Amino acid sequence: MKAVSSVFTSLLILLLVFGCSQDKNGGEKTFFLDLGQFTVESLGSNITVVQDGAGRRLILVPRGQSVPEGYEGMEVVRIPVKRVVAYRFFDVAVLKALGSLDTLVAVTIPKKDWYLTEIRDGMDQGRITYIGRPDAIDYERLKRLRPDLVLTWDIAALPMLKSLGIHAVVTTTPVAMCLSTRMKFVEFLAPFLGKEGEAKEFIKRVKRALDDIREKTSSHTLFRPKVMWGDIYEKRVLVEPGNSWIGQLIGLVNSDYLFEDVYGASCIEINLERFLYSGRDADIYFTYRTPATGATSKDALKAINPLISTIRPLQPGGRVYSPRPEFVQQQDRLDEIFTEIAAILHPDLYPGYRLKFFLRLPEHDPPAGDNPDGRRP
Q1: SS3 letters for 308-343?
Q2: What was the pLDDT predicted at 29?
Q3: CA 5 to CA 17: how far, in whole Å?
Q4: Is 287:267 a contact under the CB 8 Å cutoff?
Q5: How far is CA 44 from the centre of its chain?
Q6: Residue 119 in contact with residue 107, Cβ under 8 Å?
Q7: 281, 287 Cβ separation under 8 angstroms
Q8: How far apart (Å, rounded) are the C-alpha atoms in residues 279 and 341?
Q9: Residue 282 forms beta bridges with which residues?
Q10: DSSP 148
């Protein structure tokens, strides 16, 4: 319990404290934010230097202002950006959290995969363009859109974007985002959009949710559920590592994450034996699969891969949860997502809670026409 409290205290310090000083003119404050592998450094006069997930440094300068002395050789992005292209669901969710969806002009995910009404309507109305999958981008179409900024995970695309005169930032890293970075990533994109105030409000909201979760769960010592998060695929076994926001959140919610010792990228590969060994002790299992990709019941998961049938949560009475297909597009509701995970791990502390982002899988697929209630933790 002491260890959990210590981790939580450290997290709050990370969230609330950053370097700060007066600028040379004695007025505006400058500051430096360390967001995992991302950094944000204010130079004063609304000028900011950022480091993206690939370690690239860019300077953000308001339109019409001069680049400060000593930074002339750095890539300059004029702010606020008004036309943005996003590769990932997460990047779009951050734009939404900042109230900046109106800047989105293109995506690399087709309309059929979107659940957000704002994106589907934008594509129908021609305000948002589909420019092809990341491995088959229509660069001519992209150039015609005249974007100010591309949010991408694809480092290989950077030379082509540079040749077209298009600024880009890499919004992923080789290591999974920790809980603090997941919460504070809005502060990385905020200076591009002039939405620093909105970023602070978002973080306050998420912090309030975490405070409430900690208050509810910290004294709940009768049962610490053992949790696993991942899946077995045809040729690979993938899990969320202990350094991910998921692994850290589970630890904070007075629970034991069975892959806490695994370190690396999100959806990291481990061997089958380790997955099955951890599964012998698990109380709760989160699968990556959605109902749309086969996770309709525990029987359905066993049919997809019989090896998984040996883990404890898939036995009668075990608890298995599947993310709703729209879950990955709703990261602007991070406070609600954190609360829902806490309610799943400790349902007795959240009486009457109805699931919004996950479904509890039934033992068997229901008969045609039946619609079982999977909204109770």
Answers
A1: HHHCHHHCCCCEEEEECCCHHHCHHHHHHHHHHHHH
A2: 53
A3: 18
A4: no
A5: 29
A6: yes
A7: no
A8: 19
A9: none
A10: S
Residue 366 backbone zone (phi > 0: left; psi -120 to 50: alpha; other: beta): beta
Q: Judge residue 17's burial from the number of C-beta atoms within 10 Å of its C-beta, 0-12 exposed, 13-18 middle, 19 or more buried.
A: exposed
Q: What are phi and psi of 56, to 5 degrees?
A: -85, 140
Asked whether the beta carbons of 231 and 268 are under 8 A apart, the reply is no
Residues 6+ apart with CB under 8 A from 143: 164, 166
Q: How far apart are CA 58 and CA 60, in angstroms?
A: 7
Q: Give kind and range of the element (H or E) at residue 298.
A: helix 298-304
Question: Which structure tokens are listed for 240?
Answer: 């969320």
- CATH of 221-360 given 3.40.50.1980, 1.10.150.20, 3.40.50.720, 3.90.1640.10: 3.40.50.1980
Residues 6+ apart with CB under 8 A from 292: 325
The token pair that represents 233 in the structure block: 């695929």
Q: Cβ contacts of residue 335 below 8 Å, gap of 6+?
A: 205, 206, 208, 209
Phi, psi of 318 (to 5 degrees): -70, 160
Query: Token pair 């491995």 is at which residue?
Result: 135
- pLDDT computed for residue 16 by the predictor: 39
pLDDT by residue, tens only, the chain of 377 residues: 444 444 444 444 444 334 444 444 343 557 789 998 999 999 999 999 999 999 999 999 999 999 999 998 899 999 999 999 999 999 999 999 999 999 999 999 999 999 999 999 999 999 999 999 999 999 999 999 999 999 999 999 999 999 999 999 999 999 999 999 999 999 999 999 999 999 999 999 999 999 999 999 987 667 899 999 999 998 899 999 999 999 999 999 999 999 999 999 999 999 999 999 999 999 999 999 999 999 999 999 999 999 999 999 999 999 999 999 999 999 999 999 999 999 999 999 999 999 999 999 999 998 765 655 566 67
Q: Do you know the residue count of the chain?
A: 377
Residue with tokens 């948002």: 128
Q: Which of 109, 111, 187 is nearest to 152 (CA)?
A: 109
